[in-house]
Every structure is written in C-alpha cells, then in structure tokens.
Design goal:
The complex is a heterodimer of chains A (864) and B (113). Chain A is of the alpha+beta class and 864 residues long. In chain A, 52% of the residues lie in helices and 16% in strands. Chain A is built from 27 helices and 22 strands. Chain A has a 6-stranded mixed barrel. In chain A, strands 14-15-20-17-19-18 form a 6-stranded mixed barrel. In chain A, helix 12 runs parallel beside helix 23 and helix 23 packs parallel to helix 26. Chain A is elongated, with a radius of gyration of 37 Å. The two termini of chain A are 54 Å apart. In chain B, 27% of the residues are buried. The N terminus of chain B is likely disordered. With 113 residues, chain B is an alpha+beta fold. Helix content of chain B is 53%, strand content 16%. Classes of the chains: A alpha+beta (864), B alpha+beta (113). At the A-B interface, helix 1, helix 2, helix 3 and helix 4 of A face helix 2, helix 3 and strand 4 of B.
Chain lengths: 864, 113
C-alpha cells in the first residue's frame, strides 16, 4: 500500500513533464510552440485514460470505482443534509428497534442456558389440573423416591424459592432464597469465589456475590461463620462468583413473590422418602444420562410411581406427571409473545424500508437529468445502478450504526423499567450474534431500498430527458404508481400493527380498570412473614400483628389499616343443606384471613350483609360475588352455613355474614376467583400483608410507617413495602412489556406511514403544478383541485387500510394469548383504527391539497 | 504526424516491458527519455504508445524490477528517474533469452532451411 502511494504520487506531474519534453522536442524540430504542444498532446493520447490505466496497476478497477462512487455518494448526501438525516433517522429507528427486540430474543430464546449440559436437563413435575394454576410441583418424599430409584439421571436436584429473614449480623434482612438439594451445585455448574457448597447431607448457606457485598461488606471471614436464618443457626460455606447466575423458574404462586435475583442458596436435606410421608414442595430438574430420551424418563418415573403407590398407597402430592425439556419450562409462555414482537418489529423495519425507497425514488426523479448526463458521457447502466446501491449502502451503514446506538439505549431503558417481565430478560446484551443480525439487517435493507430508485430510472430514456430540459418525466410514469403501491403496503402493515396494539391497549384497560372505591394509589402494603422459635405459638403471632395494626392505625397520615393473608390456601366447600356432592364436583375457593379494618383500608365494597369484625365471637365467613354467584346462584348467601376443608374450626360450619365485590387486589390478570374471608384470629397467620390507607402519597409515607412498625420486633422485618398500585403494576409486568413494545412499534409504523402518504401526495402535486395551472386557467375551481388531490391520496390510503383490515382479521388470532377479555376481532378496536387512519390520511393529504389549491395559474404556466 | 508512419510497427504484447528494462540497463532515466531511446534505437521502427508507457512503468515498479528516485533534469524540472533493481537485471536476462528463443523459432518457421 505504501509502495502504491509513493509510486502514484506525482503521476500527473510525471505525465505533464513528459508532454513538455515532447513539446520541446517538437519545437526543436521546427514547429511553432502552439503546434508543438498540440502535436505532443495528440501523440500522448488520452491523459486521463493513461492515468486511470496506471492507477489500475495498483488498485483493482472495481475498488477504485467503488471508492469513486462512495466519494461521490458522500458528496451527494452532504449536499442534501435534511434528506440524509431523515433517511438515517428512519433507518436508525427501524434497525434500532429490530436489534433491540432481537437482542431480547437472543438472550431469552437463542442463547443456551447457563447450566452445563443444558440440552440434557429435564423438568419433572406432578400436577393437578383442577387446582388453582395447575401448579407443577413435587413433594419432597416423592422426590426422594425418584432420586434414590431412577437410573435415567446423572443428577436429580430439587429446589424451591422463597423469601425469608436472615440475620446478617448488622440487620435482619428479608432475603430471596433458594432451598436446594445436594445435586443442585453440580447440575447448575455453580462456581465459587470463596469456600464451596455445603457437604452432602449437611445444612449450610451459600451467598450470592451481590448479597455478600451488600450485607457482609465483602468480608471473606464470613465463610465458616454461623448465621441465623429462620431463627436457627447455620453455617455460611461459600460465596458464589459475581457473574454466576442460574436461571430458575418463577416462584410458586402461593409464595406471592415476583421473579427476582436469588440472594442466597440454602442446602436442603431430604431424608423422608416414600408415599404417606409429609414434606415440603419442590421444583425438580434432572440431568439425563447421555442418550436417554424424554419418553424413557417418563416411562421410568411412571413405573416408579406405580410401584410405590401399589405397595404403600398414594403420595401426598398431585396425581399427574409432566416431563419436559427444562429450557421449555423456563421460557414457556414467554416464547410466543417474543416471536410476535419480533415479527411486529420486522414489519416496522419493512415500513421504514418502504419509506426510504419512496424518498429515494422521489429524489431519483429529481436526479434524472444528472443521471442522463452521466449516461450520455459514457457511464454504463451497471455503473449508474452501482452508484445508487453505493449511496444506499452508505445511508444504510450510517443508519445501522445509529440503530445500534439506539438499540443499546433502548435496551438499557427497557431493562431499567421492567427488568423481570420476561425470564432471562436481564441477560439481554449486544453480543456477536446480535451484531451479525444488525449487519445482516442493514445489508438487506440497503438492497431493498437501493434497487427501488434504480428501477425507476432504468426505463427512462436519456434522449428524452436531455431533449426536454425544462421538465422531468411525467408524474403518471411508473415511478409514481410504484410509490403509491409502496405507501398502500405501508398503510396495510401499519393497520395490522395498530389493530394489534389497539387490542392490547383494550386488554390493558380491562385489566387496570378498578371498581369504584378501590384506589390502590392511596394504599401502602407491607409484608411480614414470621420466623423463629418465639413465634411458634399462634398467640405470639397474633400479638405481634395486633401491635402492628395498633401502631399503623394511630400513625399520622393514616386513614385505615388492615391485614390480609392474601389468599394462600385453596379450600373445598360444602354448603349446609345442599345436596352432597362427590369430592371432584365440590366447589373450591381461596381462603384469606383478614382483619376488620381491611375492607376500609383497601376500598373493598360490601355488597350485602357486613364485613368481618376483629375477634368475632363465632366463626363467620364473608364471601365475594363470584363465590356467591357460583355456589348460591340467585339466592342470598347471607345466613347460609358453609363447611370449609381443610381449614377447620372444630370441623363445624360457619355462617356467611356478608358479600363483598370481586377485587383483584394481589394480581391483576387473574380471572374471577371464588374467595372466602375469615377473621384473622381464626387462621394460621404465617405470612400477612398489612394494608395502610394514607391521606397522601403512600410512597412518601412509607419510610416513616416502616420505621414505626419495624421497632415492634426487629427480627421480623417488614418487606415488599410499596404502594399497592406498584404491586399491581408489577403483577402484569409481562403485559406492560408487550404493550409498551408493541405500542411503540405501532406508533412508529403510523408515523412512518403518515410521512409516506404525505411524501407521495406532496410529490405528485409538485409534479402536476403545471397541469393544475392549466386546469385552473381553463376554469377549474380551487375546490375541485383540492378534491382531485385528496381523492387521489384517499384512494391510495383506503386501498391500504382495507388490505390491512383484511390482514388484521386473519392475523390477530395469534395475539389471543396476549389479550384479556377482548376478542381478537374486537369490532370497536377495528372501527377505531379505521377511523384513525382515515383521519390521519386526510390530514396528510390536506397540506399538499391546499398547496395545490393555491397554485397561481399564471405563475404555473409561466414556469414552462 | 511522421512521414515514416507506414514503416512503423506496433509493439507485440508484453515486449514493451522488455524494451523498458533494456533501455534502463545503462543507467537511470525518466519516462520521456525511455520512449525516445526505444524509438531511436529501433531506427523509429518501434512505436511506443505513449499512453501505455506509464502503466507499463508502474507494472514493473509493482513487480519490483525497477525503482525510481525524484531527480532534477537538465532544465531544472522535477521528474522521476527510473532504474533497474537487481531483480530487474535478472528478469532482463530471463526475458532476453526467452525473446531470442522465440525470435529464432519464428525465423525458423518462416524461413525453413
């Protein structure tokens, strides 16, 4: 390369010198200086060609021409900064959004799990399809039987996720924990920064690095030290490496926990095995031996269950078995929405491409004369086409680079807003695969919109263009029709996206529409979970709760306070006086223990009868409307007696004293559930939610209330302290995630489509100025001109919208799983979108139409 | 341009490189002089397309058979002076013997003994 530079440097000087010497020679031969120079130039021939030939020795011709094209292209783009900026920004949004979504898809669906041998991991669970949520769990005695007898696995690990207080020495912290059995460490590929896993068969705690840093100040001496968790002492045996994070399924519903990072892992030893033994509830994952199929695993576990049940009777666990690849279980329902989002964002990118093609075609028409001249002086069609492609490539490269930056920002923002909306979402990053995707997307878009203007110019005749110097080709040429078709397609795609977004918005409204009286933005919730020996007795727990309530109620700025166990048990109901039903057909309900102040604190409306009072002399129930409807139909439930299993108070039925409105106070997107409330004095009270209605902003009142209540007993920390509306919003985080993304795509699509319509109509008007002038000179009214322009635009828009509606009708079915109480063909949404598009298209045509109406025939005609 | 135009012969493909190398054998010189030398030595029979001289020079430069210095000529003009490299000298020998072989062979075919 340096050789090339050195040699080519001064080439023109060399040639000039050569010609001067020749001239001198000619003069010496007796020519006049002028003749001598002419003769020398003639003898040398085409200087430019000679120089190009010489350059070609060093630089391959195509590269040289490419550089020329690039330089020329850059000059053209710099000359039209606004045009270039619009194109690059459009692309940046299109490619940026696509890249951001792909990086999420990459993190969640493509990148393998962090587990070693993830492909051999299987999820094993038992379930009961009649139970709430069909929770997939395994009871520990059954897990132990599988672990001890199954031969399909190299390792079989059980774990459960919970929240519990741990004494860090300085403070008692409510921490997210995972209880894990021995095989978990190997199976998850756990890597330790300090210490190691607890020894087999022994208890112990392993801290996550973040928790170790935050609460143990990174003090390595913590390893080997005892800590108090749940009131008993255990040893910290190790600290995990900072970057070690293992993917686990979300916590089971009855824990009322949102997915979050695990603070510490506790070794859990399972000794009791076999049917008829009680134990805890696990999630189970097995590492299959190489070559063992899923069917083989299922066969073996089924055989073990059969054998054990025949010999010893049934396990205390759900009856049915499920085996599936672990990755499927982890990602599960997140796959479909993500793929839908990816498809949606690709549509946005297509619209962006169509728009840019449109812009380039418009500019291509304006450049027809330039192209004609270049062709006339010898540029081949291939060379012209390449020039266009190179310009597109430059635009695409700039847009792609900007898009990458945009994607980085978008990812950071999205992760900050909704970090746990999708499993593994936090792992989202821009890696090699994402970069490759972006580059591929950029190249494809460059090809897509690069060819468009070339097509328009392909047919144009050089002769016609140069001959007719004042005007460019007529607007009715193929270019405008192609552009109108492009805009119609853009509109159709936008309609599909907007209908999808509209349906999701409607679902969101349904979910977040609160009944009157329910004002979660005025309620602060705090959770407490009893641990430790001193709270073994119900009376101690009750006393603690009463003290919390008393202090909360008398705190400044508090209107009311109440307790609720948040429905932690599913019950079988028997109605006194009703015909005796077999167990499977008996109604079920979720039982919650609540205090007398709860209804007022949270805004629960009493429909009939009364709410609970503290210290009810006799056991009573309050039911919700769903239960009343399902169990009692049109009859009044107040005064009826219900027996409720397994919650028993001497096995006697209790009287229904009131009916309350249905209220989704813990999680928003559950359907209507039968609910039953009892006085909190009549329940177990292991974990409770304290709801406090504040006069002002609950978030502002939170620190004071927390401090006031924490001092009751600092070993029982209050956690998940947040306004109820925040909790509710968190409960639909995946929906919000989908809605925000889909909504962004739809809005971008709409914006791009509007720009598209406007661009085409404005261009058509500009091209037809002369014609409009003639029409007006001949007596056309301004109104007629406006109607003509608007008619042309609306014809194009309506074609697109109709096609989009048809496509949307066919496509929105895939959204069903993302909707809530809205059908995929919801007429209101379709009508609203049609109206919106009509209005928007009309507005986009309006500007150019008015401009057309203001055409002064004299000026327009004089232009000629 | 020249009265003897009809006697002139176009150079065979590839021979220009050989002639340039031969011309540079006595010592470094500049482009115009190379061209003149070829014409004069061949009694104006061989006509060098002036436009192809520079591409040829750069081909030789690229192959490393010649190199150049910036020099100042008689009338105080800056010019590139080309000269043979050792590799170029070797190449000249190879090319010359190749050419002689070819010329002998062609002569034998045209004038059978």
């Amino acid at each position: 390369m340096t050789g090339r530079r050195r040699s080519l440097y001064g080439l023109d000087e060399d040639i000039r010198d050569h010609i001067e010497r020749e001239t001198q020679d000619n003069i010496d031969r007796g020519m006049t200086p002028a003749d001598a120079r002419d003769a020398a130039l003639l003898a040398f021939g085409n200087v430019t060609l000679a120089m190009e030939d010489t350059r070609a020795v060093w630089v391959p011709v195509w590269l040289d021409q490419l550089l020329q094209d690039a330089r020329y292209g850059l000059r053209m783009l710099r000359r039209n900064p606004i045009f270039s900026a619009v194109v690059i920004l459009t692309l940046a949004v299109g490619i940026g959004l696509t890249t951001a979504v792909f990086s999420v898809v990459n993190a969640v669906l493509v990148r393998p799990l962090s587990y070693p041998h993830a492909e051999r991991l299987f999820w094993l669970a038992t379930y009961d399809e009649r139970a709430k949520g069909g929770e997939e769990v395994v009871v520990s005695p059954e897990f132990a039987v599988w672990r001890d007898q199954a031969t399909s696995f190299e390792r079989l690990a059980g774990f459960f996720i919970d929240s519990e207080p741990i004494d860090t020495g300085g403070a008692v912290v409510q921490a997210r924990m995972a209880g894990v059995t021995e095989d978990f460490w190997d199976l998850s590929g756990a890597r330790f920064a300090l210490g190691g896993p607890p020894r087999r068969g022994e208890e112990g705690v392993v801290l996550s690095h973040a928790f170790f840093e935050r609460w143990f100040h990174g003090d390595a001496a913590v390893v080997g030290r005892p800590v108090v968790r749940q009131g008993t002492q255990t040893i910290v045996t190790g600290v995990l490496q900072p970057r070690f994070a293992v993917q686990l399924p979300p916590p089971l519903w009855f824990t009322r926990l949102q997915p979050a990072a695990i603070d510490f892992y506790a070794a859990t030893v399972v000794r009791r095995a076999g049917p008829r033994a009680l134990g805890r509830v696990f999630n189970v994952v097995g590492l299959a031996k190489p070559g063992v199929s899923m069917a083989r695993i299922r066969e073996e576990i089924d055989a073990i269950r059969d054998r054990e049940t025949k010999a010893h009777g049934p396990f205390y666990g759900p009856p049915r078995l499920r085996v599936e690849p672990y990755a499927d279980k982890l990602i599960g329902s997140a796959r479909r929405p993500l793929l839908i989002l990816l498809a949606a964002v690709v549509l946005v990118l297509l619209i962006a491409c169509a728009n840019i093609a449109n812009l380039l075609m418009a500019r291509g028409s304006a450049r027809q004369r330039e192209i004609a001249i270049r062709t006339a002086v010898g540029a081949g069609r291939g060379r012209v086409l390449r020039q266009f492609l190179v310009e597109s490539a430059i635009l695409a490269a700039a847009g792609g680079a900007a898009g990458l930056l945009f994607a980085r920002t978008a990812i950071a923002v999205a992760l900050g807003l909704i970090p746990n909306a999708v499993p593994r979402l936090a792992e989202t990053s821009i890696d090699g695969r994402v970069l490759a995707f972006t580059v591929a997307a950029t190249v494809l878009t460059a090809l897509l919109f690069g060819f468009a203007p070339a097509i328009v110019l392909w047919k144009a005749s050089v002769y016609d263009l140069l001959k007719d110097s004042a005007r460019t080709v007529s607007p009715s040429g193929g270019g405008l029709r192609v552009r109108q078709a492009l805009v119609a397609i853009e509109l159709a795609i936008s309609v599909v996206l907007l209908v999808g977004a509209g349906l999701m918005v409607r679902s969101f409204w349904r979910i977040t529409s609160y009944p009157p009286g329910f004002t979660p933005d005025r309620v602060l919730t705090l959770r407490v979970q009893f641990s430790g020996l001193q709270y073994r007795e119900q009376t101690a727990r009750r006393a603690h709760l009463d003290e919390l309530l008393r202090r909360a109620q008398s705190a400044p700025g508090v209107e009311a306070a109440g307790l609720n166990s948040d429905g932690d048990a599913s019950m079988l109901l028997t109605v006194e006086g009703a015909p005796d039903l077999p167990r499977e057909q008996r109604p079920t309900a979720i039982l919650s223990a609540a205090s007398g102040g709860y209804a007022k604190a949270i805004g629960l409306r009493v429909v009939r009868g009364r709410w609970l009072e503290d210290a009810e002399p006799l056991p009573v129930f309050v039911v919700n409307e769903t239960l009343a409807r399902r169990v009692f139909g049109a009859e009044d439930p107040v005064g009826r007696r219900i027996c409720c299993l397994p919650w028993v108070r001497d096995g006697r039925p209790a009287t229904v004293v009131g009916v309350v409105a249905d209220l989704r106070y813990a999680s928003l997107d559950t359907g209507s559930v039968s609910e039953l409330f009892v006085d909190y004095g009549d329940a177990g009270l292991f974990a409770m939610t304290l709801a406090v209605r504040t006069t002002g902003d609950p978030a502002a009142a939170a620190p004071a209330i927390r401090t006031l209540l924490s001092s009751v007993d600092r070993t029982q920390p209050l956690f998940d302290v947040k306004p109820l509306d925040v909790t509710l919003a968190d409960s639909i985080a995946p929906r919000r995630f989908n809605l925000v993304l889909f909504g962004t795509f739809a809005a971008s699509a709409l914006l791009l489509a509007v720009i598209g319509i406007y661009g085409v109509i404005a261009y058509a008007v500009a091209q037809r100025t002369h014609e409009i002038g003639v029409r007006m000179a001949l007596g056309a009214q301004r109104r007629q001109v406006v109607r003509m322009v608007v008619g042309q635009g609306m014809a194009m828009a309506l074609t697109g919208v109709l096609a989009g509606m048809a496509a949307a009708l066919a496509l929105t079915r895939v959204l069903t799983s993302l909707l809530y109480e809205v059908t995929p063909t919801d007429p209101a949404t379709f009508a609203a979108v049609t109206f919106l598009f009509a209005a928007v298209a009309l507005a986009a045509c309006g500007g150019p139409a008015l401009k057309a109406a203001r055409v002064d025939p004299i000026v327009a005609l004089r232009c000629e | 341009m020249s009265t003897k135009g009809d006697d002139r012969v176009e150079l065979l493909q590839g021979t220009l490189d050989l002639l340039i190398l031969q011309t540079l054998l006595p010592g470094p010189t500049h482009g115009h002089a190379i061209m003149k030398a070829i014409s004069q030595t061949s009694d104006d029979v061989l006509r060098v397309e002036q436009g192809s001289l520079y591409p040829a020079l750069h081909r030789l430069l690229k192959r490393g058979w010649i190199e150049f210095d910036h020099g100042t000529s008689e009338n105080n003009r800056r010019a590139k002076y080309y000269r043979l490299t050792p590799a170029g000298r070797k190449q000249l020998a190879v090319e010359t013997s190749k050419w002689e072989k070819l010329a002998r062979a062609i002569t034998r075919v045209l004038r059978p003994a």
